[in-house]
Amino acid sequence: MSGNIARATRPGGPALVDRYEALLCDLDGVVYRGRDALPGAGPTLSRIVAHGIRLAYVTNNASRPPEVVAAQLRGLGAPTPPGCVVTSAQAGAAHLRRLLPVGAAVVALGGPGVQQALKEEHLLAVPATRREAAAVLQGYGPDLRVSDFTEAARHVSKGAAWVATNSDATVPVEWGVAPGNGSYVDVLRRATGREPVVVGKPEPPLYELAIARLGTRRVLAVGDRLDTDIDGARAAGVDSAWALTGVDRPTDLVANPDRALPTFVIGSLADLERPYAVPVPTGSGWACGGAEARVQLVSGRPELVISAASRSPTLAVVRAGLAALLEARAHDRSLLPALVAAAASLDALVDALVDALVDAQGDAEGDAEVDAVVEAAEG
Ligand SMILES: [Mg+2]
Questions:
Q1: Measured in angstroms, how far is the CA atom of residue 298 from the centroid of ligand 1?
Q2: Which tens digits make up the pLDDT trace of 193-248?
Q3: Is residue 28 flagged as an active site residue?
Q4: Cα angle vertex 64, ends 224, 227, to 5°?
Q5: How far is the CA of 273 from the centre of ligand 1 (A)?
Q6: Exposure of 125 by Cβ count < 10 A (0-12 exposed, 13-18 middle, 19+ buried)?
Q7: Which residues on neighbouring strands pair with residue 178, listed in sequence order?
């Protein structure tokens, strides 16, 4: 599917999202944080879908079946067109289906999402205790036991195909981060001396599965993590928008020269519906939407100098500041530690932007509550 899409004209000019036919949207840190929707995410995605842009949610989390994820998204007010949730368990099962005949026994080393994905590909999901199996599909499963890994190691050592849904070392939990699938993959890797095929972001198969489902390569991948979402977009050969509502901050981008640079930097999903202000070089620095930033050497040490029309933190400052820091990094790699230190001011700015986003929503909800109380009193 591709071709012309008739879209209504937007009042403020063409929006960033209008350059694409589809979005590949990450979940945690983009649509929600923990249990709470990120303010405006659901309505923004609903309008984008109504505007004729296709949508897939692309998640490295293999433990939950797609319809469980979709139900959570609906509960948060996000649109869920049919087949919109694409998981790394599905990418892993699809990969195995190309290697194995229908009905082949595959150890489902993970949560219900892993078992279900195998079933959908007409493979036989079996427990690790099974005597013989053609393959092991390993994804995150909070209820896995040490004995499951012992048995899985037996299959992997005997030469069973081994596919890992993703290699994220950690998963976010309420108090911080806990071991993720990548940590448990390391357990089997050390025990067996083998390497799995990994299908989740940043490896291409998961994004490729979503792209095939959407039927277009004119896609924009949106994510908050540079090492999975943004690197993965580069590996899959598609554009990316780095959302600042999640875990990574400007220092993370500046500190890792081997990371892919995102095509766009957005404060939140809401920026997809706005025209994109690109930073432009001024000769001495970088300008973006009323903000200017340059890197200046003070006693041989680089400092980030920012001037902005507005005193409140803006995304334009972040974009201009990042452009200046990345240019300085490309110019002289030895400045890297000092540039990372200079990027900390942008981290603080991003934190303030995200706090303002969340506070604005809280205020709006507070106003709605007051309205409801007033209406009840008046009624
Ligand atoms: Mg994320």
A1: 37
A2: 999 999 999 999 999 999 999 999 999 999 999 999 999 999 999 999 999 999 99
A3: yes
A4: 25
A5: 20
A6: buried
A7: 171
Q: Is the pLDDT of residue 95 over 80?
A: yes
Structural domains in the chain, CATH included, are: 16-60+203-272 (3.40.50.1000), 88-198 (3.40.50.1000), 280-361 (no CATH)
Question: For the segment 303-362, what is each residue's pLDDT rounded down to a tens digit?
Answer: 999 998 777 779 999 999 999 999 999 999 999 999 999 999 999 999 999 999 988 876
Q: Are 179 and 169 in contact (CB under 8 A)?
A: yes
- The residue from 18, 28, 168, 271 that is catalytic is 28
> Rounded to an integer, what distance in angstroms lies between the CA atom of residue 151 and that of residue 88?
23
- Using the mean position of ligand 1's atoms as its centre, give its distance from the Cα of residue 30 in Å: 6
Location of structure tokens 């390497």: 195
How far apart are the two ends of the chain, measured CA to CA in Å?
52
The predicted structure's pLDDT at residue 174: 78
Packing angle, helices 336-378 and 315-331, rounded to 10: 170
Q: Copy the structure tokens of residue 13.
A: 């000019």
Q: Which residues, chain by chain, have CB under 5 Å from ion ligand 1? A: 26, 28-29, 224, 246
* Interval between CA 293 and ligand 1 midpoint (Å): 28
Q: Could you tell me how far CA 234 lies from the centroid of its own chain?
A: 13
Report the C-alpha gap between 107 and 90 in whole angstroms.
15
pLDDT digits (tens, 9 = 90+) for 104-126: 999 999 999 999 999 999 999 99
pLDDT of 170 over the 50 cut? yes
% of the chain with per-residue pLDDT over 70: 92
| Residue 347 among the catalytic residues | no
Which of 26, 148, 168, 224 is labelled catalytic? Answer: 26
Q: Using the Cα atoms of residue 352, residue 354, residue 356 and residue 359 in order, give the sign of their dihedral.
A: negative
Query: Do 271 and 315 contact (CB within 8 A), yes or no?
Result: yes
Cα 122 to middle of ligand 1, angstroms? 30
